[in-house]
């Protein structure tokens, strides 16, 4: 069943992530680049993703674009 709210969301959201995680490496070398990201990018707008170097901006973009596979969560 699709509710009216869900239909409106599908029409206005270009991409979304829920509980997105990305972990590089293993053991002591493990890096949690994304830890449970929830995000909706609105359709037809410019969105800036800002943060310090190494905060996971490129990792997030790669996962949202399907260029890299997330460790967990959904896109
Ligand atoms: N292929 C990889 N293997 C191991 N660690 C990685 C890899 N790619 C990214 N990382 C690590 O994941 C974290 C997030 O990196 P990412 O490149 O997504 O950050 P960023 O916000 O895009 O940084 P910048 O502003 O420097 O481009 C960093 O700690 C980085 O060292
Ligand atoms: Mg980057």
Tell me the fraction of residues in β-strands, as a range: 35-45%
Distance between the termini: 21 Å
Task: Give the count of helical stretches.
Answer: 2
The string of secondary-structure elements, in order, is HEEHE
Tally of individual domains: 1
Q: Helical proportion? A: 10-25%
Question: Average pLDDT value?
Answer: 92
Q: What is the spatial order of strands in the main beta sheet? A: 2-1-3
Count of individual beta strands: 3
Tell me which ligands are bound: adenosine-5'-triphosphate, magnesium ion
- The global form is globular
Low-confidence stretches: none
Using the CA coordinates, give the radius of gyration: 14 Å
Major beta sheet summary: 3 strands, antiparallel
- Sheet/helix structural class: alpha+beta
Structure notes:
This protein is an alpha+beta fold and 75 residues long. The chain has one domain (4-74). The chain has helices spanning 4-12, 57-64, and strands spanning 13-24, 31-42, 72-74. A 3-stranded antiparallel beta sheet has the order 2-1-3. Strand 1 (13-24) and strand 2 (31-42) form a beta hairpin. The longest helix has 9 residues, at 4-12. The mean pLDDT is 92. Bound molecules: adenosine-5'-triphosphate (ATP) and magnesium ion.
């Amino acid at each position: 069943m699709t509710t009216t709210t869900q239909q409106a969301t599908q029409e206005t959201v270009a991409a979304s992530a829920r509980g997105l995680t990305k972990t590089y490496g293993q053991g002591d070398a493990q890096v949690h680049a994304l830890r449970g990201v929830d995000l909706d990018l609105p359709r037809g707008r410019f969105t800036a993703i800002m943060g310090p170097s190494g905060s996971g901006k490129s990792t997030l973009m790669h996962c949202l674009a399907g260029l890299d596979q997330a460790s967990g969560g959904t896109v």
